[in-house]
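LOG
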Amino acid sequence: MKITYKLSYLTQDDIDNIWIYTFEQWSQVQANKYFKELFKTIDIICKNPEIGYPIHQIKEDYGIKKFKSHLIVYKFYNQKILIVRVLHKKMDIENQEFE
Protein backbone atom coordinates (compact mmCIF):
# COMPACT_ATOMS: atom_id res chain seq x y z
CA MET A 1 0.00 0.00 0.00
CA LYS A 2 1.31 3.41 -0.94
CA ILE A 3 1.44 5.96 1.82
CA THR A 4 -0.11 9.28 0.87
CA TYR A 5 0.59 12.72 2.28
CA LYS A 6 -1.30 15.84 3.17
CA LEU A 7 0.06 19.36 3.52
CA SER A 8 -1.04 21.43 6.50
CA TYR A 9 -2.19 24.99 5.90
CA LEU A 10 1.02 26.23 7.50
CA THR A 11 3.04 24.04 5.12
CA GLN A 12 1.22 25.46 2.13
CA ASP A 13 2.17 28.95 3.30
CA ASP A 14 5.76 27.83 3.94
CA ILE A 15 6.07 26.41 0.44
CA ASP A 16 4.53 29.48 -1.17
CA ASN A 17 6.97 31.70 0.71
CA ILE A 18 9.95 29.52 -0.24
CA TRP A 19 8.95 29.65 -3.90
CA ILE A 20 8.51 33.44 -3.85
CA TYR A 21 11.83 33.98 -2.06
CA THR A 22 13.69 31.71 -4.47
CA PHE A 23 12.05 33.40 -7.46
CA GLU A 24 12.96 36.87 -6.19
CA GLN A 25 16.54 35.93 -5.27
CA TRP A 26 17.39 33.74 -8.26
CA SER A 27 14.79 32.94 -10.93
CA GLN A 28 11.55 31.20 -11.78
CA VAL A 29 13.52 28.28 -13.18
CA GLN A 30 15.38 27.86 -9.88
CA ALA A 31 12.18 28.26 -7.84
CA ASN A 32 10.43 25.57 -9.88
CA LYS A 33 13.45 23.26 -9.60
CA TYR A 34 13.59 23.65 -5.81
CA PHE A 35 9.82 23.05 -5.61
CA LYS A 36 10.10 19.79 -7.62
CA GLU A 37 13.02 18.56 -5.52
CA LEU A 38 11.11 19.35 -2.33
CA PHE A 39 8.21 17.18 -3.44
CA LYS A 40 10.58 14.38 -4.47
CA THR A 41 11.86 14.43 -0.90
CA ILE A 42 8.29 14.28 0.41
CA ASP A 43 7.75 11.21 -1.81
CA ILE A 44 10.86 9.64 -0.25
CA ILE A 45 9.39 10.26 3.21
CA CYS A 46 6.17 8.54 2.09
CA LYS A 47 8.14 5.50 0.96
CA ASN A 48 10.08 5.35 4.22
CA PRO A 49 8.54 7.35 7.10
CA GLU A 50 11.40 6.28 9.40
CA ILE A 51 13.96 8.13 7.24
CA GLY A 52 13.81 11.32 9.29
CA TYR A 53 14.93 11.78 12.84
CA PRO A 54 12.46 12.10 15.73
CA ILE A 55 11.94 15.36 17.57
CA HIS A 56 10.20 13.98 20.66
CA GLN A 57 11.68 16.73 22.81
CA ILE A 58 9.73 19.29 20.72
CA LYS A 59 6.68 17.38 19.54
CA GLU A 60 5.83 13.74 20.25
CA ASP A 61 5.52 11.46 17.18
CA TYR A 62 7.00 14.06 14.81
CA GLY A 63 10.02 13.68 12.60
CA ILE A 64 12.29 15.90 10.56
CA LYS A 65 13.91 15.23 7.20
CA LYS A 66 16.61 17.61 6.02
CA PHE A 67 16.15 19.04 2.55
CA LYS A 68 18.87 21.42 1.35
CA SER A 69 18.40 24.63 3.39
CA HIS A 70 15.11 23.48 4.90
CA LEU A 71 13.69 20.97 7.33
CA ILE A 72 10.54 19.05 6.51
CA VAL A 73 8.58 18.46 9.72
CA TYR A 74 6.11 15.61 9.45
CA LYS A 75 3.91 13.22 11.39
CA PHE A 76 3.09 9.64 10.40
CA TYR A 77 -0.35 8.44 11.42
CA ASN A 78 -3.09 6.16 10.05
CA GLN A 79 -0.86 5.14 7.12
CA LYS A 80 -0.60 8.79 6.03
CA ILE A 81 2.04 11.47 6.29
CA LEU A 82 1.05 14.93 7.44
CA ILE A 83 3.64 17.48 6.34
CA VAL A 84 3.38 19.87 9.26
CA ARG A 85 5.93 22.55 8.28
CA VAL A 86 8.81 23.27 5.91
CA LEU A 87 11.15 25.51 7.88
CA HIS A 88 14.51 27.05 7.12
CA LYS A 89 17.27 25.21 8.98
CA LYS A 90 18.26 28.39 10.84
CA MET A 91 14.80 28.86 12.35
CA ASP A 92 14.17 28.11 16.01
CA ILE A 93 12.00 25.02 15.59
CA GLU A 94 10.96 24.86 19.24
CA ASN A 95 9.13 28.20 18.96
CA GLN A 96 7.26 27.47 15.74
CA GLU A 97 3.57 26.79 15.40
CA PHE A 98 2.63 23.29 14.26
CA GLU A 99 -0.65 22.23 12.67
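LOG (cont.) second protein
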Amino acid sequence: MVVHGKQLFFTILSLLLIMPAQVFASGEAHLQDFTAHWGGIICIIVFCLAYSLVIAEEQIHLRKSKPVMLAAGIIWMIVAIVYNQHGDQHTAEIMVRHNLLEFGELFLFLLAAMTYINTMEDRNVFDKLRAWLVSQGFSLRTIFWITGAISFLLSPIADNLTTALLMSTVAMAVGGTNIKFVSIACINIVVAANAGGAFSPFGDITTLMVWQKGIIEFQNFFVLFVPSLVNWLIPAAIMSFFVSSDKPDAIDEKIELKDGAFIVIVLFILTIIMAVCAHNFLHMPPVLGMMTGLAFLKIFGYFLKIKIKRENNKIENDDGGAGALGVESFGDRDVGKKEEFNIFKKLARAEWDTLMFFYGVILCVGGLGTMGYLAALSEFMYVDLGPTTANILVGILSAIIDNIPVMFAVLTMLPEMDTTQWLLVTLTAGTGGSLLSVGSAAGVAVMGQARGVYTFFAHLKWTWAIALGYMASIWVHFLING
Protein backbone atom coordinates (compact mmCIF):
# COMPACT_ATOMS: atom_id res chain seq x y z
CA MET A 1 0.00 0.00 0.00
CA VAL A 2 2.93 2.33 0.76
CA VAL A 3 4.39 1.68 -2.71
CA HIS A 4 1.07 2.44 -4.39
CA GLY A 5 0.74 5.60 -2.31
CA LYS A 6 4.19 6.81 -3.45
CA GLN A 7 3.36 6.09 -7.07
CA LEU A 8 0.10 8.02 -6.79
CA PHE A 9 1.87 10.94 -5.10
CA PHE A 10 4.55 11.18 -7.82
CA THR A 11 1.95 10.86 -10.58
CA ILE A 12 -0.10 13.77 -9.19
CA LEU A 13 3.07 15.82 -8.60
CA SER A 14 4.20 15.23 -12.21
CA LEU A 15 0.82 16.34 -13.56
CA LEU A 16 0.92 19.50 -11.46
CA LEU A 17 4.40 20.32 -12.75
CA ILE A 18 3.59 19.55 -16.40
CA MET A 19 0.22 21.33 -16.68
CA PRO A 20 1.45 24.89 -16.06
CA ALA A 21 4.30 24.33 -18.52
CA GLN A 22 1.82 23.17 -21.15
CA VAL A 23 -0.34 26.25 -20.64
CA PHE A 24 2.75 28.46 -20.83
CA ALA A 25 3.99 26.68 -23.99
CA SER A 26 0.73 27.27 -25.78
CA GLY A 27 1.86 30.81 -26.66
CA GLU A 28 2.99 31.92 -30.10
CA ALA A 29 6.44 31.07 -31.45
CA HIS A 30 8.35 33.80 -33.30
CA LEU A 31 10.68 31.99 -35.69
CA GLN A 32 13.74 33.82 -36.98
CA ASP A 33 16.28 33.16 -39.73
CA PHE A 34 19.58 32.02 -38.22
CA THR A 35 20.84 30.12 -41.27
CA ALA A 36 23.92 32.36 -41.54
CA HIS A 37 24.45 32.57 -37.75
CA TRP A 38 27.29 30.63 -36.09
CA GLY A 39 24.68 28.64 -34.15
CA GLY A 40 22.85 27.57 -37.30
CA ILE A 41 26.09 26.51 -38.99
CA ILE A 42 27.13 24.42 -35.98
CA CYS A 43 23.66 22.75 -35.94
CA ILE A 44 24.06 21.73 -39.60
CA ILE A 45 27.55 20.34 -38.94
CA VAL A 46 26.35 18.37 -35.89
CA PHE A 47 23.43 16.88 -37.85
CA CYS A 48 25.64 15.90 -40.81
CA LEU A 49 28.20 14.24 -38.51
CA ALA A 50 25.47 12.32 -36.67
CA TYR A 51 23.83 11.17 -39.89
CA SER A 52 27.12 10.05 -41.38
CA LEU A 53 27.40 7.69 -38.40
CA VAL A 54 23.86 6.46 -39.09
CA ILE A 55 24.78 5.68 -42.71
CA ALA A 56 27.90 3.82 -41.53
CA GLU A 57 25.95 1.72 -38.99
CA GLU A 58 26.62 -1.58 -40.79
CA GLN A 59 30.38 -0.94 -40.82
CA ILE A 60 30.98 0.54 -37.37
CA HIS A 61 28.18 -1.36 -35.54
CA LEU A 62 27.02 1.74 -33.66
CA ARG A 63 23.24 1.70 -33.27
CA LYS A 64 21.66 4.47 -35.34
CA SER A 65 19.68 5.93 -32.43
CA LYS A 66 22.76 6.92 -30.42
CA PRO A 67 24.31 9.63 -32.64
CA VAL A 68 20.98 11.26 -33.58
CA MET A 69 19.78 11.39 -29.96
CA LEU A 70 23.02 13.09 -28.96
CA ALA A 71 22.78 15.44 -31.95
CA ALA A 72 19.19 16.33 -31.01
CA GLY A 73 20.26 17.40 -27.51
CA ILE A 74 23.18 19.48 -28.80
CA ILE A 75 21.10 21.15 -31.54
CA TRP A 76 18.31 22.20 -29.19
CA MET A 77 20.77 23.56 -26.62
CA ILE A 78 22.28 25.74 -29.36
CA VAL A 79 18.78 26.78 -30.54
CA ALA A 80 17.88 27.86 -27.00
CA ILE A 81 21.15 29.78 -26.55
CA VAL A 82 20.80 31.64 -29.87
CA TYR A 83 17.17 32.63 -29.28
CA ASN A 84 17.95 33.71 -25.70
CA GLN A 85 20.80 35.89 -26.99
CA HIS A 86 18.25 37.66 -29.20
CA GLY A 87 15.86 38.33 -26.31
CA ASP A 88 13.41 35.48 -27.04
CA GLN A 89 13.09 33.04 -24.15
CA HIS A 90 9.90 31.29 -25.29
CA THR A 91 10.18 30.19 -28.94
CA ALA A 92 12.70 27.38 -28.35
CA GLU A 93 10.55 25.85 -25.60
CA ILE A 94 7.34 26.15 -27.63
CA MET A 95 8.93 24.51 -30.68
CA VAL A 96 10.62 21.67 -28.80
CA ARG A 97 7.32 20.83 -27.09
CA HIS A 98 5.62 20.86 -30.50
CA ASN A 99 8.20 18.39 -31.81
CA LEU A 100 7.88 16.19 -28.73
CA LEU A 101 4.12 16.01 -29.33
CA GLU A 102 4.78 14.94 -32.95
CA PHE A 103 7.12 12.20 -31.70
CA GLY A 104 4.80 11.14 -28.87
CA GLU A 105 1.92 10.38 -31.24
CA LEU A 106 4.18 8.47 -33.64
CA PHE A 107 5.92 6.61 -30.79
CA LEU A 108 2.72 5.33 -29.15
CA PHE A 109 1.18 4.39 -32.51
CA LEU A 110 4.24 2.35 -33.51
CA LEU A 111 4.60 0.83 -30.04
CA ALA A 112 1.07 -0.58 -30.26
CA ALA A 113 1.62 -1.86 -33.81
CA MET A 114 4.99 -3.44 -32.94
CA THR A 115 3.50 -5.18 -29.90
CA TYR A 116 0.78 -6.74 -32.07
CA ILE A 117 3.34 -7.87 -34.66
CA ASN A 118 5.56 -9.39 -31.93
CA THR A 119 2.55 -11.17 -30.41
CA MET A 120 1.52 -12.64 -33.78
CA GLU A 121 5.10 -13.74 -34.29
CA ASP A 122 5.08 -15.37 -30.83
CA ARG A 123 1.82 -17.18 -31.68
CA ASN A 124 3.55 -18.63 -34.84
CA VAL A 125 1.31 -16.74 -37.29
CA PHE A 126 4.21 -15.74 -39.55
CA ASP A 127 6.07 -19.05 -39.13
CA LYS A 128 2.92 -20.89 -40.23
CA LEU A 129 2.78 -18.82 -43.42
CA ARG A 130 6.48 -19.38 -44.07
CA ALA A 131 6.25 -23.14 -43.46
CA TRP A 132 3.33 -23.46 -45.88
CA LEU A 133 5.19 -21.62 -48.63
CA VAL A 134 8.43 -23.61 -48.36
CA SER A 135 6.63 -26.98 -48.24
CA GLN A 136 4.65 -26.59 -51.49
CA GLY A 137 7.43 -27.50 -53.92
CA PHE A 138 7.03 -24.39 -56.10
CA SER A 139 9.65 -23.55 -58.73
CA LEU A 140 12.16 -20.81 -57.98
CA ARG A 141 10.47 -18.44 -60.41
CA THR A 142 7.08 -19.11 -58.82
CA ILE A 143 8.53 -18.47 -55.36
CA PHE A 144 10.03 -15.25 -56.73
CA TRP A 145 6.58 -14.02 -57.79
CA ILE A 146 4.71 -15.36 -54.75
CA THR A 147 7.07 -13.77 -52.21
CA GLY A 148 6.93 -10.50 -54.15
CA ALA A 149 3.13 -10.51 -54.35
CA ILE A 150 2.72 -11.37 -50.66
CA SER A 151 5.22 -8.63 -49.75
CA PHE A 152 3.24 -6.11 -51.79
CA LEU A 153 -0.12 -7.12 -50.26
CA LEU A 154 1.04 -7.75 -46.69
CA SER A 155 3.13 -4.60 -46.15
CA PRO A 156 0.08 -2.26 -46.14
CA ILE A 157 -1.05 -4.09 -42.98
CA ALA A 158 2.05 -5.44 -41.27
CA ASP A 159 4.43 -2.62 -42.41
CA ASN A 160 7.23 -2.99 -44.96
CA LEU A 161 9.97 -3.85 -42.45
CA THR A 162 8.20 -6.86 -40.89
CA THR A 163 7.00 -8.06 -44.29
CA ALA A 164 10.47 -7.89 -45.85
CA LEU A 165 12.02 -9.83 -42.97
CA LEU A 166 9.34 -12.54 -43.15
CA MET A 167 9.51 -13.02 -46.91
CA SER A 168 13.32 -12.94 -47.02
CA THR A 169 13.41 -15.92 -44.63
CA VAL A 170 11.18 -17.78 -47.12
CA ALA A 171 13.53 -16.92 -50.00
CA MET A 172 16.55 -18.06 -47.98
CA ALA A 173 14.85 -21.29 -46.88
CA VAL A 174 13.87 -22.19 -50.45
CA GLY A 175 17.02 -20.95 -52.18
CA GLY A 176 19.45 -22.53 -49.75
CA THR A 177 22.94 -22.31 -51.28
CA ASN A 178 21.63 -20.77 -54.52
CA ILE A 179 23.11 -17.33 -53.82
CA LYS A 180 21.96 -15.85 -57.15
CA PHE A 181 18.30 -16.69 -56.46
CA VAL A 182 18.36 -15.55 -52.83
CA SER A 183 19.95 -12.23 -53.81
CA ILE A 184 17.52 -11.38 -56.61
CA ALA A 185 14.52 -12.61 -54.58
CA CYS A 186 15.52 -10.34 -51.67
CA ILE A 187 15.78 -7.34 -54.03
CA ASN A 188 12.30 -8.13 -55.35
CA ILE A 189 10.94 -8.46 -51.81
CA VAL A 190 12.39 -5.11 -50.67
CA VAL A 191 10.99 -3.29 -53.74
CA ALA A 192 7.58 -4.95 -53.35
CA ALA A 193 7.38 -4.24 -49.60
CA ASN A 194 8.26 -0.56 -50.08
CA ALA A 195 5.82 -0.21 -53.00
CA GLY A 196 3.02 -1.91 -51.07
CA GLY A 197 3.60 0.28 -48.04
CA ALA A 198 3.20 3.45 -50.11
CA PHE A 199 -0.56 3.13 -50.65
CA SER A 200 -1.53 2.53 -47.02
CA PRO A 201 -1.24 4.71 -43.90
CA PHE A 202 0.01 1.61 -42.02
CA GLY A 203 2.51 0.45 -44.64
CA ASP A 204 5.35 2.87 -43.99
CA ILE A 205 6.40 5.49 -41.45
CA THR A 206 6.19 8.21 -44.11
CA THR A 207 2.57 7.44 -45.01
CA LEU A 208 1.72 7.20 -41.31
CA MET A 209 3.19 10.67 -40.68
CA VAL A 210 1.23 12.17 -43.60
CA TRP A 211 -2.01 10.58 -42.37
CA GLN A 212 -1.49 11.61 -38.73
CA LYS A 213 -0.80 15.15 -39.90
CA GLY A 214 -4.30 15.15 -41.44
CA ILE A 215 -3.08 16.14 -44.92
CA ILE A 216 -4.52 13.10 -46.73
CA GLU A 217 -7.63 11.22 -45.59
CA PHE A 218 -7.35 7.47 -44.95
CA GLN A 219 -9.31 6.35 -48.01
CA ASN A 220 -7.45 8.72 -50.36
CA PHE A 221 -4.18 6.80 -49.95
CA PHE A 222 -5.62 3.89 -51.92
CA VAL A 223 -5.62 5.85 -55.19
CA LEU A 224 -1.87 5.14 -55.11
CA PHE A 225 -2.49 1.39 -55.46
CA VAL A 226 -1.99 1.24 -59.24
CA PRO A 227 1.11 3.51 -59.30
CA SER A 228 2.59 1.45 -56.44
CA LEU A 229 1.82 -1.77 -58.29
CA VAL A 230 3.59 -0.44 -61.40
CA ASN A 231 6.53 0.58 -59.21
CA TRP A 232 7.00 -3.08 -58.22
CA LEU A 233 5.87 -4.94 -61.36
CA ILE A 234 8.28 -3.33 -63.85
CA PRO A 235 11.53 -4.24 -62.03
CA ALA A 236 10.02 -7.60 -60.98
CA ALA A 237 9.17 -8.48 -64.58
CA ILE A 238 12.69 -7.58 -65.71
CA MET A 239 14.40 -9.52 -62.92
CA SER A 240 12.16 -12.59 -63.35
CA PHE A 241 13.86 -13.36 -66.69
CA PHE A 242 17.05 -14.01 -64.73
CA VAL A 243 15.43 -16.41 -62.24
CA SER A 244 15.63 -20.15 -62.91
CA SER A 245 12.44 -22.19 -63.31
CA ASP A 246 14.06 -25.19 -61.56
CA LYS A 247 12.33 -26.75 -58.59
CA PRO A 248 14.24 -26.81 -55.31
CA ASP A 249 13.98 -29.70 -52.88
CA ALA A 250 10.67 -29.51 -50.99
CA ILE A 251 11.03 -28.74 -47.29
CA ASP A 252 8.56 -30.49 -45.00
CA GLU A 253 8.28 -28.22 -41.98
CA LYS A 254 5.25 -28.45 -39.69
CA ILE A 255 4.35 -25.41 -37.60
CA GLU A 256 1.33 -25.29 -35.32
CA LEU A 257 -0.40 -22.07 -34.33
CA LYS A 258 -0.26 -21.40 -30.61
CA ASP A 259 -3.27 -20.67 -28.41
CA GLY A 260 -5.02 -17.41 -29.19
CA ALA A 261 -3.39 -16.85 -32.60
CA PHE A 262 -6.66 -16.21 -34.45
CA ILE A 263 -7.99 -13.96 -31.68
CA VAL A 264 -4.83 -11.83 -31.83
CA ILE A 265 -5.27 -11.45 -35.62
CA VAL A 266 -8.91 -10.40 -35.15
CA LEU A 267 -7.93 -7.92 -32.41
CA PHE A 268 -5.26 -6.42 -34.67
CA ILE A 269 -7.78 -5.87 -37.46
CA LEU A 270 -10.20 -4.36 -34.91
CA THR A 271 -7.43 -2.07 -33.65
CA ILE A 272 -6.72 -0.78 -37.17
CA ILE A 273 -10.44 -0.12 -37.68
CA MET A 274 -10.59 1.80 -34.38
CA ALA A 275 -7.58 3.93 -35.37
CA VAL A 276 -9.22 4.79 -38.70
CA CYS A 277 -12.59 5.57 -37.07
CA ALA A 278 -10.98 7.71 -34.35
CA HIS A 279 -9.39 9.87 -37.04
CA ASN A 280 -12.16 9.94 -39.66
CA PHE A 281 -15.31 10.15 -37.53
CA LEU A 282 -14.28 11.42 -34.10
CA HIS A 283 -11.55 13.77 -35.43
CA MET A 284 -9.16 12.44 -32.81
CA PRO A 285 -5.52 11.35 -33.31
CA PRO A 286 -5.32 7.76 -34.71
CA VAL A 287 -3.03 6.83 -31.83
CA LEU A 288 -6.08 6.86 -29.52
CA GLY A 289 -7.57 3.90 -31.42
CA MET A 290 -4.24 2.08 -31.49
CA MET A 291 -3.67 2.40 -27.75
CA THR A 292 -7.24 1.28 -27.03
CA GLY A 293 -6.58 -1.74 -29.22
CA LEU A 294 -3.36 -2.38 -27.30
CA ALA A 295 -5.45 -2.40 -24.11
CA PHE A 296 -7.67 -5.10 -25.66
CA LEU A 297 -4.57 -7.17 -26.43
CA LYS A 298 -3.24 -6.76 -22.89
CA ILE A 299 -6.56 -7.83 -21.38
CA PHE A 300 -6.71 -10.84 -23.73
CA GLY A 301 -3.12 -11.61 -22.73
CA TYR A 302 -4.23 -11.74 -19.10
CA PHE A 303 -6.85 -14.42 -19.82
CA LEU A 304 -4.44 -16.31 -22.10
CA LYS A 305 -1.84 -16.30 -19.35
CA ILE A 306 -4.35 -17.75 -16.86
CA LYS A 307 -5.44 -20.43 -19.36
CA ILE A 308 -1.87 -21.57 -20.05
CA LYS A 309 -1.02 -21.53 -16.34
CA ARG A 310 -4.01 -23.77 -15.54
CA GLU A 311 -3.05 -26.22 -18.29
CA ASN A 312 0.55 -26.35 -17.03
CA ASN A 313 -0.64 -26.91 -13.44
CA LYS A 314 -2.83 -29.76 -14.65
CA ILE A 315 0.19 -31.37 -16.36
CA GLU A 316 2.21 -31.00 -13.15
CA ASN A 317 -0.58 -32.49 -11.04
CA ASP A 318 -1.06 -35.41 -13.42
CA ASP A 319 2.67 -36.11 -13.38
CA GLY A 320 2.78 -35.87 -9.60
CA GLY A 321 -0.19 -38.21 -9.32
CA ALA A 322 1.52 -40.83 -11.46
CA GLY A 323 4.59 -40.72 -9.24
CA ALA A 324 2.47 -41.02 -6.09
CA LEU A 325 0.79 -44.17 -7.47
CA GLY A 326 4.14 -45.78 -8.10
CA VAL A 327 3.87 -45.40 -11.88
CA GLU A 328 7.12 -44.55 -13.65
CA SER A 329 7.17 -40.96 -14.96
CA PHE A 330 9.03 -40.63 -18.24
CA GLY A 331 11.09 -37.51 -19.01
CA ASP A 332 11.19 -34.18 -17.29
CA ARG A 333 8.15 -32.73 -15.54
CA ASP A 334 8.28 -29.77 -17.94
CA VAL A 335 7.58 -32.00 -20.96
CA GLY A 336 4.23 -31.03 -22.52
CA LYS A 337 4.03 -27.75 -20.62
CA LYS A 338 3.34 -24.63 -22.66
CA GLU A 339 5.46 -21.52 -22.53
CA GLU A 340 3.90 -18.90 -20.27
CA PHE A 341 2.52 -15.83 -22.04
CA ASN A 342 3.53 -12.35 -20.86
CA ILE A 343 2.28 -9.40 -22.91
CA PHE A 344 4.89 -7.08 -21.39
CA LYS A 345 7.65 -9.24 -22.84
CA LYS A 346 6.12 -8.67 -26.28
CA LEU A 347 6.01 -4.95 -25.48
CA ALA A 348 9.66 -5.02 -24.46
CA ARG A 349 10.61 -6.64 -27.78
CA ALA A 350 9.58 -3.53 -29.74
CA GLU A 351 12.27 -2.03 -31.97
CA TRP A 352 13.51 0.40 -29.35
CA ASP A 353 16.53 1.44 -31.38
CA THR A 354 14.20 2.39 -34.24
CA LEU A 355 11.81 4.25 -31.93
CA MET A 356 14.65 6.21 -30.33
CA PHE A 357 16.03 6.91 -33.80
CA PHE A 358 12.70 8.52 -34.69
CA TYR A 359 12.99 10.67 -31.56
CA GLY A 360 16.45 11.87 -32.58
CA VAL A 361 15.53 12.51 -36.20
CA ILE A 362 12.31 14.38 -35.44
CA LEU A 363 14.00 16.65 -32.91
CA CYS A 364 17.07 17.21 -35.11
CA VAL A 365 14.95 18.21 -38.11
CA GLY A 366 12.69 20.30 -35.85
CA GLY A 367 15.72 22.12 -34.45
CA LEU A 368 17.06 22.88 -37.93
CA GLY A 369 13.60 24.13 -38.87
CA THR A 370 13.56 26.45 -35.87
CA MET A 371 16.88 27.89 -37.07
CA GLY A 372 15.29 28.68 -40.45
CA TYR A 373 16.83 26.02 -42.68
CA LEU A 374 13.60 24.29 -43.66
CA ALA A 375 11.98 27.56 -44.71
CA ALA A 376 14.98 28.27 -46.96
CA LEU A 377 14.92 24.75 -48.36
CA SER A 378 11.17 24.95 -48.98
CA GLU A 379 11.62 28.22 -50.89
CA PHE A 380 14.30 26.68 -53.11
CA MET A 381 12.58 23.34 -53.79
CA TYR A 382 8.89 24.15 -53.95
CA VAL A 383 9.04 27.70 -55.35
CA ASP A 384 12.19 27.83 -57.49
CA LEU A 385 12.13 24.22 -58.77
CA GLY A 386 8.38 23.61 -58.58
CA PRO A 387 6.47 20.96 -56.58
CA THR A 388 6.68 18.13 -59.16
CA THR A 389 10.48 18.35 -59.54
CA ALA A 390 10.88 18.83 -55.79
CA ASN A 391 8.75 15.79 -54.94
CA ILE A 392 10.60 13.57 -57.42
CA LEU A 393 13.89 14.72 -55.86
CA VAL A 394 12.50 13.90 -52.40
CA GLY A 395 12.22 10.25 -53.47
CA ILE A 396 15.78 10.17 -54.84
CA LEU A 397 17.06 11.91 -51.72
CA SER A 398 15.26 9.36 -49.51
CA ALA A 399 17.36 6.60 -51.10
CA ILE A 400 20.52 8.32 -49.86
CA ILE A 401 19.50 9.79 -46.52
CA ASP A 402 16.42 7.75 -45.44
CA ASN A 403 12.82 8.66 -46.12
CA ILE A 404 11.85 9.44 -42.51
CA PRO A 405 13.88 12.64 -41.95
CA VAL A 406 13.18 13.71 -45.54
CA MET A 407 9.41 13.31 -45.15
CA PHE A 408 9.41 14.93 -41.71
CA ALA A 409 11.28 17.89 -43.21
CA VAL A 410 8.62 18.21 -45.93
CA LEU A 411 5.83 18.03 -43.36
CA THR A 412 7.56 20.64 -41.23
CA MET A 413 8.02 22.94 -44.25
CA LEU A 414 4.35 22.30 -45.16
CA PRO A 415 4.57 23.77 -48.68
CA GLU A 416 1.40 24.85 -50.46
CA MET A 417 0.44 21.82 -52.58
CA ASP A 418 -2.75 20.25 -53.87
CA THR A 419 -3.77 16.66 -53.03
CA THR A 420 -2.18 15.28 -56.22
CA GLN A 421 1.23 16.65 -55.22
CA TRP A 422 0.90 15.44 -51.61
CA LEU A 423 0.07 11.99 -52.95
CA LEU A 424 3.10 12.25 -55.25
CA VAL A 425 5.52 13.02 -52.43
CA THR A 426 3.97 10.17 -50.40
CA LEU A 427 4.58 7.82 -53.33
CA THR A 428 8.12 9.00 -54.05
CA ALA A 429 9.25 9.09 -50.40
CA GLY A 430 7.83 5.60 -49.85
CA THR A 431 9.28 3.97 -52.99
CA GLY A 432 12.39 6.08 -53.66
CA GLY A 433 14.23 4.22 -50.91
CA SER A 434 14.12 1.09 -53.08
CA LEU A 435 16.72 2.60 -55.41
CA LEU A 436 19.46 1.63 -52.94
CA SER A 437 19.61 -1.16 -50.38
CA VAL A 438 20.35 1.38 -47.62
CA GLY A 439 17.50 3.65 -48.67
CA SER A 440 14.78 1.99 -46.61
CA ALA A 441 14.36 0.22 -43.29
CA ALA A 442 13.26 -2.90 -45.18
CA GLY A 443 16.46 -2.95 -47.24
CA VAL A 444 18.74 -2.44 -44.25
CA ALA A 445 16.94 -5.16 -42.27
CA VAL A 446 17.18 -7.71 -45.10
CA MET A 447 20.89 -6.91 -45.56
CA GLY A 448 21.33 -8.02 -41.97
CA GLN A 449 19.11 -11.07 -42.47
CA ALA A 450 20.84 -12.28 -45.66
CA ARG A 451 24.29 -11.02 -44.75
CA GLY A 452 26.85 -11.48 -47.50
CA VAL A 453 24.19 -12.52 -50.04
CA TYR A 454 21.90 -9.52 -50.35
CA THR A 455 24.43 -6.69 -50.37
CA PHE A 456 24.66 -3.03 -51.36
CA PHE A 457 26.37 -3.85 -54.67
CA ALA A 458 24.05 -6.79 -55.45
CA HIS A 459 21.13 -4.36 -55.16
CA LEU A 460 22.98 -1.63 -57.08
CA LYS A 461 23.20 -3.92 -60.15
CA TRP A 462 19.40 -3.64 -60.48
CA THR A 463 18.99 0.04 -59.57
CA TRP A 464 18.43 0.87 -63.25
CA ALA A 465 15.41 -1.48 -63.40
CA ILE A 466 14.05 -0.14 -60.10
CA ALA A 467 14.49 3.42 -61.43
CA LEU A 468 12.39 2.50 -64.48
CA GLY A 469 9.61 1.39 -62.14
CA TYR A 470 10.04 4.55 -60.05
CA MET A 471 9.63 6.88 -63.04
CA ALA A 472 6.79 4.80 -64.53
CA SER A 473 4.86 4.93 -61.23
CA ILE A 474 5.10 8.74 -61.22
CA TRP A 475 3.81 8.88 -64.81
CA VAL A 476 0.92 6.52 -63.96
CA HIS A 477 0.07 8.60 -60.86
CA PHE A 478 -0.36 11.75 -62.96
CA LEU A 479 -2.23 9.75 -65.61
CA ILE A 480 -4.77 8.39 -63.09
CA ASN A 481 -4.82 10.96 -60.27
CA GLY A 482 -3.62 14.15 -61.99
